[in-house]
Amino acid sequence: MSVRRMELFLKFRLAATHSLEEREEPHAHIWRIEVGLTGPVEEGRVISMPALQAILDPEVQKLRGTFLNKNILLDEASRAFPTCECLAEYFEKAFDRALAAKGCKVLLTQIHIAVDEIDGQETGSARLTIR
User: Fold this and answer.
1) Domain CATH for 74
2) In contact, 107 and 131? CB cutoff 8 Å
3) Residues 31-47 pLDDT 10s
4) pTM of the model
5) Phi, psi (5° rounding) for residue 53?
């Protein structure tokens, strides 16, 4: 008998500024973060969504309201070029550590980062597929 797995998705919003070579002046964005997680369904759910939110949100909070190019939580390469791709890789590591610290059985499957201009217009996005 195969074990069925369900995939959950949690969404976070992050307001932060950055600067890139093609747009050197610091400018603000709203980064939309969607995290996919999978695990066995036990007692009608994979994991309590509020509990999962409480585990992962502090990792998002660490970047909220910061200038990403100067945030020491990001590695040197990510600070030099803070993009959707770099943030996806940062959150993969940060979320994995947070989940492991709480002994969670869920596994990350994907992290989707979309970047919006302040007026709400989406600029683009990146999806990191993990499993």
Assistant:
1) 3.30.479.10
2) yes
3) 999 999 999 888 888 89
4) 0.91
5) -60, -40
Reported confidence tier of residue 4, pLDDT bands at 50, 70, 90: low
Gap between the Cα atoms of 113 and 34, Å rounded: 7
Q: Are 16 and 29 in contact (CB under 8 A)?
A: yes
Nearest to 85 by CA among 71, 97, 75: 75
pLDDT at 127: 97
Distance CA 88, CA 118 (A): 20
- Burial of 4-15, coded b for 16+ CB within 10 Å and e otherwise, reads eeeebebebebe
Total domains in the fold of the chain: 1
Q: Which of 20, 115, 13, 98 lies closest to 64 in space, CA to CA?
A: 13
